[in-house]
Amino acid sequence: MKKLLLFAEKAFTVLSLIHYSGGPLVVILSGGASEGDESEGGSDFALIQLIFLVIYLITFCLLVLRWKKVIKVITKDTFIWLLLGLAIFSVFWSDAPNLTRSRTIALVGTILFSLYLASRYSLKEQLQLLGWTFGIAIIASFLFAVGLPKYGLMGGVHAGDWRGIYNHKNVLGKVMAPGTIVFLILALTAKKRYWIFWLGLVFSVLLIMASKASSPIINVLILVVELILFQILRWDYDFMIPTLMGISTISSITYSLIAGNAELIAALFGKDLTLTGRTNFWPFIIDKIWENPWLGYGFGAFWRGLEGQSADIWYASGWKPPNSHNGYLDLLLELGLVGFSIYLIEFITSFQKALAYIRAVKTADCFWPAIFLTYIVLANLTESTLIIQNDFFFVIQVAIFFSIRIPQEKEQINHNYQTNKSNHESINAWR
User: How far apart are the two ends of the chain, measured CA to CA in Å?
Assistant: First the structure.
């Protein structure tokens, strides 16, 4: 009976993560609508919201069952609660109070699910659950694209591009990008049946290529290079510091070369320096930010089409973007410089702990927190998933914020610490 309950709990976690990722109900309920279709955006997604409410309820019950550990995790992180509090109180200055109120309720539910992940599963276990999540998403995406092309393939302006179980090709690419790293890490740590994870890596890359989304390809390449470079953090300081300085010098030279040939490099990926027109309307967004710089326009209250402040952006730019296509700009729009500062402190302290975790733990799975947080930085340059309710990337990000602040594989960390301490003492004695 106990094993059955544990299986049911893990199944709930994986299925919830798939739902948070946006598949497959959005594309099904939309009837396979694509960008540019007249029916796009006119679907009834009440079922999706109902499922989220069920997830919130089950998550709350699971948290109550382990309330002692949950309280310990809650007290480890201050800034995420300050950020949530700011979002909740933004209803008092929001341009759309009712919308802010409903979206902050969803934000609370989303953070509770992240809290559940961190308090219930170790980072290693979270990585394994993500392996199941991405694996199911990959299989389902191939089935949709091949067997149900009305749903699995894009129509309209992106006709023929794969989108799998998601409503847009960019979402498929965005989801599969961190999936490649998850499978790579799992393949490197697996003692048997590692070929399954290598297959997962191959198929996730194939889906990114089939989606024809260029940003995820670039992000994956950067993350793989980063995974290799992170190995340096495990070296002795005498070798690590000069190496990092050398890499910094090479990076500066590389940046200069890229900046000088940016237009040519962008053309190789079928892009231009405006990031497919994104930078054309960013100046108008920045103007809006400075009209209300400190507290913003309220959580989730800016982008409301022609009904809100976003109408000025639409008229001025000639575009109808649903958001800034940049997570940092959207955070500034919604919660201002105050919210942005709180998030920045939260992120930097978490990333520092993620880097320390790499030095403390000697298995490949220790790279996951730092790798994913880096992906968040990269993805939000052209997408908006920094702080958003009912979002897969926000769920994992906050789960890492919590997890990296609580003991992980304590015995292994202590063993490695003692080993490193002994090595340093031996080196100093020899000197």
Answer: 60
